[in-house]
Each structure stands twice: as C-alpha cells, then as structure tokens.
Amino acid sequence: MKETREFLSRIGLPGGDCYDLPTSDKRFADGGQYRFEVPGIQGPAAMKALLAELDKQAIHIHRVTQTKGIMSLTDGEIEAMVTLAEEYRVELILAIGPRATTDTSASVNTPEGQRMGYRLRGQEQIVRAIEDVKRAARQGCRAFLVYDEGCLWVLNEARKAGEIPGDCQFKVSAHSGHGNPCSGKLLEQNGADSINPIRDIQLPMLAAMRQAMDVPLDIHTENPASTGGFIRHYEVPEMIRTAAPIYLKTGGSVAKTHSWDTSDAEARGRAKQVALVKRVIDQYYPEAIWSEKKK
User: Fold this and answer.
1) Nearest Cα to 229, choosing from 206, 260, 208, 204?
2) What's the DSSP call for residue 250?
3) What is the rounded distance in angstroms from the CA atom of residue 159 to the CA atom of residue 138?
4) DSSP three-state, residue 258
5) Model pTM?
6) pLDDT, tens only, 259-278
7) Cβ–Cβ < 8 Å for 37, 250
C-alpha cells in the first residue's frame, strides 16, 4: 500500500485516515473555527420559537435549515422565514425538492432503493429542482440544501451563467452519502459551498476530509432515531480542532425522523441541545473560536 499512499499524497490528498488527528489551521472568513446550525425547522412558527429561545439564552447560531423541501412551503411562508433570518441575522437554508422521497417512484422505500439516498431520477426532476431554487430565490432565499451531485453541478453552472443569483450558496446533504476526502474534493470542485458527510463519520476520517478540502464541513453532533439516534456532544471539541471551519449541526435528536414537523416546543428543545453542546465546548475546548454573529 505504500506506493498508493505516496500517490495520493502527490495529488494533494491524505494517504489514509488521519489517526494522529492533526489540528486544522483553516478558518471561516471572520477567523472563527465553528458555527452552529439547527436543522429540521420546517416553517416560520418553529423558526420563530427556536430563535426567540436562543435569544433568551444569549446564544447565537448561524444557520437554520429546512429539510422537507421548498415545494412544501407557500410563498408567504418562505417570505416569513426570510424575514426572520434577516431579523435574527442567521442564514436560512431551504431544501430543494422534489427528491427521491417525494418522487413518483417507490424505489427509495425498498431495501435496495434506500441506497440511492435522496438523489434525483430523470431530467424532469432536475428541471423541477432548478425551478424550486428560482422560486425561493425570488422570495429572497440564497442558500439551498442539495441532495444530488449532478444537481449540484448544474446549479453551479446556472449560478455562473446568471440563471440564478450569483450569491446563491449550496450545501450538500448527508443523504448524498459521502464520507471520504476524494468525494469531498469532487463536491468542492463542482460548486459545493459546504458539505455534510455521513452522520457516523469518525474523527480520523473527518480529519482526513479536512486535509483535502477548504470549504466548511457540516457535522451532526446528534441524530434523529431514524438515522441512528446517537449523540456525539463529547466529541465536539475534537471535531472543531481537527475539522475547522465546521458547522455543528445540532438538535436532531429531538426529532423522530429527518423531515419531522418540528413543533414550537420541539424547536425550543433544539435550542436546549445547542446550549448543551456549547457547555461541552466551553469546558473542554474553551479556546475554540466561536464565529461572530452574522452581520
């Protein structure tokens, strides 16, 4: 394996997983090492409850992510969420849909089909995905959750060509199933602005991905029961140290499934999870740099 590892090193990739857990010297533009992201906020009421609760606790987060799909929101709901994002100075990420779970196919619900992740089937779904982005962009949203690598590539081309606003940002979902430096590098080259690896990625694997990439990594600190239910709060300090810049995707354990309709009370529960993670960081890695609140 020595020659293969040397080849990988020559082309700018780690020769294997980084079991030495090297410290990342990469940062967000403001010098921060980590930011918080709360997923599964499906509408304006839950978003308001989450942000108001965090405001009471003097905890700022940087992203709120909706995961059911733009197609599930009315224009008024999108506009309300964009307004809340501006008021509380957070980035709003809306999921592109339809995708595999809402396609006119049962494949994704079969044991074999589950291996397709949330990827798109057919060019008509690509057309619809682009239309979803255009619609949300007209309402002021500029950040989108992408489930399909080909869709990412074409959206990046649309961004470059002016078919969609040039300041649109694309986050690749964990449902795409990526978890190695080569895949991360490919996504980065195809226009990803941040990448969410597989949920159970281990620290040496995560550190290796950081060695190969510059864009932020979005890492689940916990998960709904449907995707493992595990809670990784005590690993967060090492996640930050080895994988900065990193978004800590927190609050998922409150939900039963990925696209759970979060109630106002559950949104406040997600805020509590953020506070619990922040406590671990403050105790075990107090020198970690929390990125500034969005201006």
Assistant:
1) 260
2) -
3) 14
4) coil
5) 0.92
6) 667 788 889 999 999 999 99
7) yes
Domain architecture of the chain: domains with CATH: 22-284 (3.20.20.70)
3-state SS assignment for residue 230? coil
> What CA–CA distances, in Å, run from 214 to 78, 107, 184, 197, 211?
31, 35, 10, 14, 8
Q: Which two tokens stand for residue 112?
A: 């074999």
Give the closest residue to 78 by CA, choosing from 153, 86, 24, 228: 86
| Sequence-separated (6 or more) residues with CB below 8 Å from residue 30 | 291, 292
Element (H, E) at 161: helix 149-161
The vertex-156 CA angle with 150 and 162, nearest 5°, equals 135
- Vertex 42 angle, CA 40 and 46, to 5°: 95
Q: Would you state the structure tokens that stand for residue 288, as one six-digit string?
A: 């970690």
SS3 assignment, position 102? helix
| Residues 227, 199 contacting (CB under 8 angstroms) | yes
Give the chain's length: 295
Q: Which residues of the chain have pLDDT under 50?
A: none
Note whether 197 and 174 are within 8 A (CB): yes
Please state, in angstroms and rounded to a whole number, the distance separating the CA atoms of residues 155 and 149: 10
pLDDT tens, position by position, 89-111 = 999 999 998 766 676 676 666 66
Task: Give the relative orientation of helices 44-56 and 75-88 as an angle to the nearest 10 degrees.
Answer: 10
> What distance, in Å, lies between the first and last C-alpha atoms of the chain?
48
Q: Measure the CA angle with vertex 69, ends 222 and 109; round to 5°.
A: 75
Are 187 and 172 in contact, with CB atoms under 8 Å apart?
A: yes
Residue 252: how many CB atoms within 10 A of its CB? 28
Separation CA 74–CA 289 (nearest Å):
38
